[in-house]
Write a structure and sequence with these properties.
The chain folds into two domains: 82-308 and 434-525 and 534-571, Metal-dependent hydrolases (TIM Barrel), CATH 3.20.20.140; 315-431, no CATH class. Helices cover 39% and strands 18% of the residues. It has 20 helices and 24 strands. The strands form five sheets. Strands 1, 2, 3, 4, 5, 19, 20, 21 and 22 form a nine-stranded mixed sheet that branches. A six-stranded parallel sheet has the order 9-10-11-12-13-18, with helices on both faces. A four-stranded antiparallel sheet has the order 14-17-15-16.
Length: 572
């Protein structure tokens, strides 16, 4: 009898575990679905069965067992969960673990830590991160994660609704290691950066991201980036880059990214590939550069989002690099109060605008002063402000509308600089400065996958890509515009992205793969988010499953947090 009592607690624990596991692992049978499996193969009609967190069967003769949830998927498409190759959701996962605006789009995995910024690793001072969060409109909750492992532990404890693939942020590594994060690193600081990146890779990062258009990343040299990526290379690290320039000097920026991949021996992922402004560059020329590099053995791809408007900080657009080299953004903005410094900064902007919109054809006959006025006139009507600190009434309005509203008689550049001073550089801009035909050319290329460049929900204005990217690709570009087939669209947002990252169990429908699934109506699926009303949910997404648990049903999130932090070669 004593022996029975001795083993009773273990028996009860085992029984309780088994009972709980059975409840959580109840199978789901999708009947009569149109299956698009993520490989690019043609759609076919079949049943699909899940059990626990895995797909256990696909075929025409599957039958439910006791306790199986049966879903009639007749007329609906069943495909792998979408993988967002470029997201900034990691900033808000601690406060928005449900990731509802992503779940509603069908996203089950996000690649985050992009553009050189993330919540980990953090040094004692993280002024550039605070500035970046302010521009994004993300509330700074003063999270402090010295190592990537600390951030992951926090998420694991809290639970998250989507899977996370995290990159190590070059900008944060620079800030943690350097006395002057925007300067040139000493030998000791370089060694410190290597050590921080090595620890991040050991903690589970998938590579390193850069934001070379922003401080502190824009202070990095080519050799510095090659050196750091050589540290990430043995871990299978990927180099994801927001390049130095996406406008007049785009070809040079692409060459730099390719050189880093070639010299360090790592895959290169060009972030949010675009041609910003009327530069004269063509998608064909840029894509040819990528094709040539691939023929040389460089594993390069790019990601794109389905909008002809970008979003970034006003400070990144208006502040000359030399003005930020000593003292950072805050000091640079303060120096704009000095007439001499402002005149020099305005001269920089004028020259940049002429590079951004070079004269061509008959326009060459127009004097620079008049041509510059015309460029500014267009920019004033093509650029909208969002997330202006202290001015919610500015959200979604153009520069010209706000200048008229305030009876501002000065130059648009002066107005922008005054806004930077007033708001302490807490201003973001949506710029409708890309050609739709260029967006389509990049989207349709076999060298691109899709990324939203979005984030969670913030107060004030926001880019619609955070709410509509993936339904927009399916509904508008694939179904309505026939830019590619539904099978091709799904492949680019699932299987191709998974293969790009080396994810073994996501991105495809097959027995033994992760049960990350999207069930949507191919006739009704569409985005509803606009620049005027960004926070609008998509239509036509019926059900989302993350690791075998239903995260969205009937178009509404369930609140389940079955997402995981994915580690290269492992999951924890």
């Amino acid at each position: 009898m004593k022996r029975i009592y001795h083993f009773l607690p273990a028996f009860i624990a085992l029984y309780t575990f088994s009972f709980t596991a059975n409840l959580n692992a109840r199978g789901v049978l999708f009947k009569n679905a149109t299956v698009i499996d993520g490989t690019g193969a043609k759609a076919y009609r079949a049943h699909l069965m899940t059990d626990g967190n895995l797909i256990v069967g696909i075929g025409a003769a599957l039958k439910e067992s006791a306790g199986t949830k049966v879903i009639d998927a007749d007329g609906l498409v069943l495909c792998p969960g979408f993988i967002d190759m470029h997201s900034h959701l990691d900033f808000q996962l601690p406060s928005q673990p449900g990731a509802e605006n992503y779940i509603r789009q069908g996203v089950t995995t996000v690649v985050a830590g992009n553009c050189g910024f993330a919540l980990a690793p953090q040094g004692e001072k993280a002024s550039s991160l605070t500035s970046y969060l302010a521009v994004l409109g993300v509330e700074d909750k003063k999270y402090h994660f010295p190592r990537m492992a600390d951030y992951f532990a926090h998420l694991r404890k809290k639970g998250i609704a989507v899977n996370l693939v995290q990159l190590a942020p070059h900008g944060m590594i620079r800030e943690a290691a350097m006395k002057d994060p925007e300067g040139k690193p000493s030998a000791g600081e370089m060694e410190r950066m290597r050590d921080l990146l090595k620890k991040a890779m050991e903690d589970g990062a998938w590579g390193m991201s850069t934001g070379l258009a922003y401080p502190p990343g824009r202070g990095a040299s080519l050799d510095e980036l090659v050196d750091l990526m050589s540290v990430a290379m043995p871990y299978g690290g990927i180099y994801c880059t927001h390049m130095r320039d996406e406008s007049a000097k785009l070809p040079e920026a692409v060459r730099e990214a390719l050189s880093i991949g070639e010299r360090a021996g790592v895959p290169v992922q060009i972030s949010h590939l675009k041609i910003f402004g009327s530069t004269g560059h063509s998608p064909g020329d840029i894509l040819f550069m990528l094709e040539e590099a691939r023929r040389r053995g460089v594993d390069v791809l790019a990601d794109v989002y389905p909008y002809n408007a970008s979003s970034t900080s006003l400070s990144a657009i208006m502040l000359p690099p030399w003005l930020c080299e000593e003292g950072g953004i805050a000091r640079a903005v303060g120096s704009l109060k000095d007439p001499v410094t402002r005149a020099k900064a305005k001269d920089y902007m004028d020259r940049r605008l002429l590079d951004f919109a070079p004269k061509r054809g008959i326009a060459r006959l127009i004097p620079d002063r008049i041509f510059l006025w015309l460029v500014k006139w267009v920019m004033g009507r093509k650029n909208m402000l969002i997330g202006v600190h202290g001015h919610p009434e500015y959200d979604g309005k153009t520069f010209r509308e706000i200048m008229k509203q305030n009876n501002y008689k000065g130059d648009i550049i002066d107005f922008g600089m005054d806004l930077l001073i007033e708001t302490k550089h807490d201003v973001a801009v949506i710029s409708v400065m890309m050609k739709e035909k260029h967006v389509r050319a990049f989207m349709a290329s076999p060298l691109t996958v899709f990324g939203s460049d979005g984030m969670g929900v913030v107060e004030g204005g926001q880019h619609p890509r955070s709410f509509g990217t993936f339904p927009r690709i399916l509904g508008y570009y694939a179904r309505d515009e026939k830019l590619f087939t539904l099978e091709e669209a799904v492949h680019k947002m699932t299987g191709m992205t998974a293969r790009r990252l080396g994810l073994r169990d996501q991105g495809v429908l097959r027995e033994g793969a992760a049960a990350d699934l999207v069930l949507y109506d191919p006739v009704r699926v569409r985005d509803t988010a606009t620049f005027a009303a960004a926070k609008s949910n998509p239509e036509g997404i019926h059900l989302i499953m993350v690791n075998g648990e239903i995260a969205l049903e009937g178009g509404a999130p369930t609140g389940r947090k079955a997402g995981r932090v994915l580690k290269r070669g492992n999951v924890f």
